[in-house]
Amino acid sequence: MKVIETEAGLDPVLIERAARLMPARSSQVRLERMLGTPLAYRLDAHFPTKLTERRSAHLLSLVRATVEKHGEGEASSCGMTWASGGERSEMFVSAHSEGEGTGVRVTVDRRRALIAHAVTYGIPAFWTLSIGASAVTSEPSSWVLGAAVAGGAVGILAFARSRWAARIRRTREKVDTLMDAISESLAEGGGGT
């Protein structure tokens, strides 16, 4: 495949990097479409470098240094696993031997983070709407106040969505950085033989 890409004048590294940007699953639930991002996603990559115990240990230290999160991991001649612990956004990284090469999988699950985010911003929006509704029902002439309060609630929800999108963007950048670091390490034969 890489020979064909090279003959066509395409950079195989850029093709591989672009292929990792494609989501692993294409069907999104309604909530994911509304948020504009999947709640959980997975990236898989295969590298021609054979995995050894030393390379597994090197990959584990590389993952810890790149992700900069607390987590538990182990490395052996069979492969390497690392999982974030106690985080809202859970991340799992694994590398294992696949024939004469190495398979790497990075999985991110943001469902717990979404619940915390919804509670953090949902409660203020709910109370803002409740205050606006009580103001409108107590004095029928206070539609302006009710509209202003409803606008405040919509503003809170818009701010919450923008914060969610920013956090997702940072998480994706971190995963891309991690996959690039793993790719470079395995391409160079990182960690020795």
What layout of secondary structure does this protein have?
Blueprint: H1 2-7, H2 12-20, H3 30-35, E1 40-47, H4 53-67, E2 71-76, E3 79-84, E4 90-98, E5 101-109, H5 111-138, H6 143-187
Antiparallel strand pairs: 1-5, 2-3, 3-4, 4-5
Number of helices: 6
What is the overall silhouette? Answer: elongated
Q: What portion of the residues fall into strands of 2 or more residues?
A: 15-25%
Major β-sheet, in short?
Answer: 5 strands, antiparallel
Secondary-structure element series: HHHEHEEEEHH
Q: Low-confidence segments, ≥5 residues, pLDDT <50? A: 21-26
C-alpha Rg, in Å?
A: 23 Å
The amount of helix comes to: 55-70%
CATH topology (level 3) name: Alpha-D-Glucose-1,6-Bisphosphate, Chain A, domain 4
Mean pLDDT: 80
Structure description:
By secondary structure, this protein is α+β, with helices and mostly antiparallel strands. It has a single domain (2-113, 161-187), classed as Alpha-D-Glucose-1,6-Bisphosphate, Chain A, domain 4 (2-Layer Sandwich). The protein has helices at residues 2-7, 12-20, 30-35, 53-67, 111-138, 143-187, and strands at residues 40-47, 71-76, 79-84, 90-98, 101-109. Strands 1-5-4-3-2 form a 5-stranded antiparallel beta sheet.
